[in-house]
Design brief:
- The complex is a heterodimer of chains A (108) and B (115).
- Chain A has 108 residues and is mostly beta strands.
- In chain A, 0% of the residues lie in helices and 48% in strands.
- Chain A is built from no helices and ten strands.
- In chain A, the strands form two sheets. In chain A, strands 1, 3, 4, 8, 9 and 10 form a six-stranded mixed beta sheet that branches. A four-stranded antiparallel beta sheet of chain A has the order 2-7-6-5, with no helix packed on it.
- Chain B has 115 residues and is mainly beta.
- Chain B has one helix and eleven strands, in the order βββββββββαββ.
- Chain B has one helix at 99-102; strands at residues 4-7, 10-13, 19-25, 31-37, 43-51, 54-57, 64-70, 73-78, 87-94, 105-106, 110-114.
- Classes of the chains: A mainly beta (108), B mainly beta (115).
Chain lengths: 108, 115
């Protein structure tokens, strides 16, 4: 089953780094790890993805464990606009299944 | 204009009524999806379509049906709406062969209330 496990909620202070963990022990060798976030009253939006190597883009960084059974989304400097629910997902056989995600609260 | 457009944005309907939610996309993607989201929960997959002739059930398809009228259009129907189908519904699209790298694009959602 394509299931991930994330903490229900996390808090961060504005302008500090945030590390959002995800466990995906059932991942297979060809499953890409994707992260999405959902801002209030909006649909999910793509953040970042990776397979084996760590990845960086303008929004975030993704650190993938060597055994690929876990990953961490890193927001280098949290802003108030980063307050959202963050979902860690992997796509299998063309469909994407969401868990409950992590609700990130950013305090000014 | 949005890449993925859902109509209506909000709808209130009565129990037992048939209702259709529509989704259209300008991304040129071949794959389309319908999800529902209940308060405080993640999204659950209802149906997905890999092309016009390929439609598949997701996790929670009971009580729903879909129609892929064209590559750009995918509609979701509730044949006889019931109150526990009150939820936020999202349509999404992806490009086969590229979705592992580029992910999905979501619409803004349709808020459906069944009274």
């Amino acid at each position: 089953d394509a299931k991930t496990t994330q903490p229900n909620s996390m808090e961060s202070n504005e302008e500090e780094p945030v590390h959002l963990p995800c466990n995906h022990s059932t991942i297979s060798g060809t499953d890409y790890i994707h992260w999405y976030r959902q801002l209030p009253s909006q649909g999910p939006e793509y953040v970042i993805h990776g397979l084996t190597s760590n990845v960086n883009n303008r929004m975030a960084s993704l650190a993938i464990a060597e055994d690929r059974k876990s990953s961490t989304l890193i927001l280098h400097r949290a802003t108030l606009r980063d307050a959202a629910v963050y979902y860690c997902i992997f796509i299998r056989r063309g469909d994407m299944r969401f868990g409950a995600g992590t609700r990130l609260t950013v305090k000014p | 204009d949005a890449d993925v457009t859902q109509t209506p944005r909000n709808r209130i309907t009565k129990t037992g009524k048939r209702i259709m939610l529509e989704c259209s996309q300008t991304k040129g993607h071949d794959r389309m999806y319908w999800y529902r989201q209940d308060p405080g929960l993640g999204l659950r997959l209802i149906y997905y379509s890999f092309d016009v002739k390929d439609i598949n059930k997701g996790e929670i398809s009971d009580g729903y049906s879909v129609s892929r009228q064209a590559q750009a259009k995918f509609s979701l129907s509730l044949e006889s709406a019931i109150p526990n189908q009150t939820a936020l519904y999202f349509c999404a699209t992806s490009d086969s062969g590229k979705d592992v790298n580029y992910g999905y694009t979501f619409g803004s959602g349709t808020r459906l209330t069944v009274v």
